[in-house]
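Question: what's this shape?

___
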Amino acid sequence: MSEPGRILKDKECWRRQLAAISRAVEGGCQLVQIRERDLPAATLAGYVREAVARVEGSGARVLVNDRLDVALVAGADGVHLRTTSLRAADVRRVTEDHGLADFLIGVSIHSLREAIVAGEGGADFVVCGPVFDTPSKRGMGEPLGLERLKAICESVPIPVIALGGIRLAGIDDVLATGVAGIAAIGLFQQGETQREIVADILARYPAQ
């Protein structure tokens, strides 16, 4: 959501990011992922608590990147795991021991094999990408493209969310692969128009 670590030093950045969450949720955003994994646990927990408060009553759910401990302490709705994080199966075991049957587990994947492993491990959904070329994901290898994205959607029983280089003009083609939704960074980094962008997408492509 912001430059790693910057939020620790800049309370104005903290405020702007929370305001961005509010605008996105007002527009209909359903999942908010907190990606500040470089922050100290106590600072991150405070930020997550404020984010959870911002979405209360909206139906949106807050996920914390990687940090299961912070998600549990701060009252988040789930975690989003990288392929190098804890296994989805281990997270599921912990949350079930805590009586959290509705705790969401998302996993970032970059191949069909990773998608299958995530599904078998108890993930609720996978975020698949990069679909198209995008500067922030160039370290993840070549873009998957629409054909491979479609093959992944057809091969796993859990929802697939597409990520990476998605633009408004290309959403029709992405949704035609069978994905359950899209995730984005650059698409929504347009200041005060975040609310309108989310609302416009949902108006054109209502959730099923």
